[in-house]
Amino acid sequence: MKSLRHISLLLFIVFTGDSFASKDDKAFQEQSMLSVLYVQTATEFAANNIQTYANAKDALLKGLEDSSWTAALEQVDNFEDKSPAIILDVDETVLDNSNFQARTILSGLSYPNGWAEWVNESNAGAVEGVHDFLHFADKKGVKIYYLTNRLESFREATKKNILKLGLPFEDDAVLLMRSEENLRDKTDRRKNIANENRIVLIIGDQLTDFISTKEAYVFHTERKKLAKKYSDLWGTKWFLITNPTYGRWELSIYEDYPSSEKEAIETRKKTLIQ
Ligand SMILES: [Mg+2]
To answer: CB under 8 Å, gap of 24 or more: what pairs does 48-54 form?
Structure first.
């Protein structure tokens, strides 16, 4: 019997720093094969990311002209005179870790097996469109924050990867990691950025890059309503990179943590709408 939590957290926990060492069923790992292939081979995926970052440029220009504009729910007053900044998540927003995911499929071993090695290679590619966008923002004098749930111990490797890709990196203060004791919730770290800056845009691949875990960690039927709730923000101040390969979206289909990979697959099938 696999660990209760292991199965359902397998895909969602990936890249966040939690530890669920276990030997996996290769067939289960292979369930993510098409989504990883989509990320790695589909020009539609690349085009979508270019499109997202192109639209983010236009939004940035609008936001820079309007001092009453903020993208952060945490930023409520006295921000008009603060200098402009943007917040980007790192994994699957800036860095493309699909090679690591491909390795998990081919080896049949899931996260955290091989994750530290992958991160320490500092060899992740850039998500399409992000290089151009970030240099555009940098030239406009916008401060660029990277807000990630990678653990603090991966700071140097993460920084090295960002620099290797030629992306703007003002100083160590713009890279906000997750300390061992910190929760996954990014709200407080967004607040800290908002104390010093006017947050013009937020870009991420998970709902929690924009809102609290409390709000985002709900069953999928409730969770889906959050897209509409924030419809005024998507595409204007919030930009979402599609991630079909892992995330809380997957965990949210389970009412209870599945007790086995078999049970997880059963729930996946039951959740399909026909
Ligand atoms: Mg991410």
So the answer is: 48/242, 49/127, 49/128, 49/129, 49/130, 49/241, 49/242, 50/128, 50/129, 51/129, 52/129, 52/203, 52/239, 52/240, 52/241, 53/128, 53/129, 53/130, 53/132, 53/133, 53/239, 54/129, 54/133
- Separation of CA 82 and ligand 1 centre (Å): 27
Handedness of CA 74, 76, 77, 81 (dihedral sign): positive
pLDDT tens digits, the chain, 274 residues: what are they? 233 333 434 444 434 333 333 455 688 889 999 999 999 999 999 999 999 999 999 999 999 999 999 999 999 999 999 999 999 999 999 999 999 999 999 998 888 899 999 999 999 999 999 999 999 999 999 999 999 999 999 999 999 999 999 999 999 999 999 987 767 899 999 999 999 999 999 999 999 999 999 999 999 999 999 999 999 999 999 999 999 999 999 999 999 888 888 899 999 999 999 9
Q: How far is the CA of 92 from the centre of ligand 1 (A)?
A: 5
CATH classification code of 4-271: 3.40.50.1000
- Distance in Å, CA 76 to ligand 1 centroid: 25
